[in-house]
Amino acid sequence: MSVWTIIPVKPLNRAKSRLAQVLSPDERQQLAEIMLRHVLDVVRSVPQVLGTLVISRDGRALAIAREYGARTVQESGAPQLNGALLRATQVVMRWKSSAVLILPADLPLIAAQDVACIIEMGQNERSVVIATDQHQDGTNALFVRPPGLIGYAYGPGSFQRHLELARAAGVDAQIYESERLLLDIDVPEDLHTYNELANLYQPK
Question: Do the strands 99-102 and 3-9 form a parallel or antiparallel pair, or are they unpaired?
C-alpha cells in the first residue's frame, strides 16, 4: 500500500488568531511553525508513508515543508479547504497513491505510532479511519483508501459528517482513539492542556 499524507497549512503569520489574548502575533506564528515542523518530522519517520504533500498559499510554510522532503502545492487566493484537499488528492492519485492520510498542521503531540496504527487499521481495500478532537467535533486525522472513496467535509461538525460520508460509501469507518490526537491548539485552554501533557508524551 502506497500512502501519501496531505497536510493543509494556513498562512503562518495569520495562524491561531483565537490565541491573540495570550500570545503576540510573532509568538502565534512561531507556535504554528513549531507544530508544522513536528507533524512533518513525525510523518517523515514512518516507513509506511511513501510521501507527504503540503498545500498552502504561504511560501514560508511551503519552504519549511521542502526542508523535510515534502512535495508542495501553492494555492492562490483564499481557497476553500475541502476543495483544496480534493485537488491535492487528485495530485497524489496521479502519483499512484493507494491511500491518503489527511493531517492538520497543529497536532503538537502526534507520534509516529499514531500514524502507523492508523495505516494498519486501514488495511482493507476500502477503508476509512478517523480520529476526532477532544470535543468529538472536528477531524484530526482522516485516512481514506482508495483516495477519493469519500469527499471531504471539514469545518464544524466534520467528524460526524465524515462518518456519514463513509456510511454512504458503504464503509463502516473505524475510529482511532489516542489522547495525543485529541489535542489541537486553537484556544488558550488548549495551550494549558498542552503544557500539562507535553512532559508526559514528548521525548525527554
Answer: parallel
Residues whose CB falls within 8 Å of the CB of residue 140, separated by 6 or more in sequence, listed in order = 103, 104, 107, 131, 132, 133, 181, 182, 184
- Find out whether 185 and 35 touch, Cβ atoms under 8 Å: yes
Domains in the chain, CATH or no CATH each = 3-201 (3.90.550.10)
Answer for the pair 128, 146: CB distance below 8 angstroms, yes or no.
Answer: no
The alpha carbon dihedral of 65, 138, 111, 102 has a sign of: negative
CB atoms within 10 A of CB 117: 16
Query: In which residue are the cell numbers 503540503 written?
Result: 54
Mean pLDDT by 10 residues, the chain (204 residues): 95 76 81 94 97 96 97 85 95 95 94 97 97 93 97 96 98 94 77 66 49
Give the predicted TM-score (pTM) of the model.
0.91
